[in-house]
Specification:
Elements: H1 15-28, H2 38-45, H3 52-55, H4 59-63, H5 90-103, H6 118-122, H7 137-155, H8 158-161, H9 168-172, E1 176-181, H10 187-195, E2 213-218, E3 223-226, H11 227-230, H12 245-249, E4 252-257, E5 266-269, H13 277-282, H14 287-297, E6 300-305, H15 314-322, E7 330-334, H16 342-360, E8 368-370, H17 380-403, H18 405-437, H19 444-453, H20 455-466, H21 476-483, H22 496-516
Parallel strand pairs: 1-5, 1-6, 2-4, 6-7, 7-8
Antiparallel strand pairs: 2-5, 3-4
Helix pairs in contact: 7-18, 7-22, 14-15, 18-20, 18-22
Amino acid sequence: MELEFDPIPIGSCSKEHHNIYQQWFNFADSDSDGRMTGNDATKFFAMSNLSRQDLKQVVSLAQSGHPITHDLLNSDVDLKNLKPPIMEGLDVLLAKKKHKQKDTDVNGSPQLQLSPSSSWFSSKSTKKVPLSSVTSIIDGLKRLYIQKLKPLEVTYRFNDFVSPLLTNSDFDAKPMVMLLGQYSTGKTTFIKHLLKCGYPGAHIGPEPTTDRFVVVMSGPDERSIPGNTVAVQADMPFSGLTTFGTAFLSKFECSQMPHPLLEHITFVDSPGVLSGEKQRTQRAYDFTGVTSWFAAKCDLILLLFDPHKLDISDEFNRVITSLRGHDDKIRVVLNKADQVDTQQLMRVYGALMWSLGKVLNTPEVTRVYIGSFNDKPVNDAVSGPIGKELFEKEQEDLLSDLKDIPKAACDRRINEFVKRARAAKIHAYIIGHLKKEMPAMMGKSKAQQKLIDNLAGEFGKVQREFHLPPGDFRNVEHFRESLRGYNIDKFEKLKPKMIQVVDDMLAYDIPNLLKNFKNPYD
């Protein structure tokens, strides 16, 4: 079954002319956000030397001498062979831009042309971003982050304790789908099935073939980029993975290829989760930590099982446990279901739900998709006609879920931003409280140790003082480990004005942003 996204209608024109129009649009779109503001359009179309009244009509037809009427587009005008309009001085400007790009070529590889909003992140956090530069919800979130949330994170070292500071690429990244499962459950085949072709570096076999994390994303040509290179590229949202060290980055790569589906979604293929304690200790990096990092970035997490591999190993248990807090993103896929008959499938499904119930620890029933996600026809000799019909309906449901990802991505980005703001606030309350509990002069070392030992109690005090829900607090043990490397006395005191700025952002700025800009996929 093919996964398709409805393309934006571009009218009837030749491929050559379409390329010209695309080049013009890229030039006119000054902030590279995929849409043109009124100012962008005014500046660009002024080069046509037409009146404002004519500019409301189709420029090409106006310059070709056709009378401008409402019925024109329904007439027999040969749109396909209609020449592009004459834009005075545009060829010179395009040539200059192309020449400038060549000058910035480094080692034969052109540098990425970043949007103006990317410069917001390289400047001081206090820099004021003009409201006129905001042309979308994502731009608005960037502005709010730089001006209101980032100062709080920097002041109380949120990036050292909880999550790295956000970059431009974190906001602009396409929605991501991560696939997790034991070896040979069909993770790589699943991606290949959706793309209708393989991707660079894909290996499929009954043994553990994928030994690394592979990000499959859109690119101008087919190539594999090593992990160390990916982690330092400003246009990719993977700089945070450097914290896992070279051992992990050598087991990480990015696979790029031109594909219509990858223009909307990025896939993360993971190594098969192996059984046994011995397998975990052989990994040279924190596998669970890496999956947890990707889980926070992803919009959907698919846990793949196969009817002959229902056992949840120690490592898989740890991985699933690390996904807590992202329960709404998790979908379970029982793959290769056409390998068993209907009666066996019923028993397999029951066993899977029983196994998951012990690990997920949620009162809600997890959504399980049953099917055979590969390019081979369903084996109805085993599954029977009822099984075949079931698999087809389940595939349609899962593909429908995937189609909704881009539309839901904007809402999820806002949701994650709000969650981050609340987490930063609670972190500031904790750091401010610990600083307040430190003595002014003597016995600082003993006081710090006492606070660290009684951290759960201190969390309780913060919770009661500021009326905060206990579920929003971080794991005490993780926080304690991070805290040991710092001198609490050097922390900043709580600054109520900074907290108020974030509160106002959540109460007023974000609702206003949603009111002024619509979801681009609506």
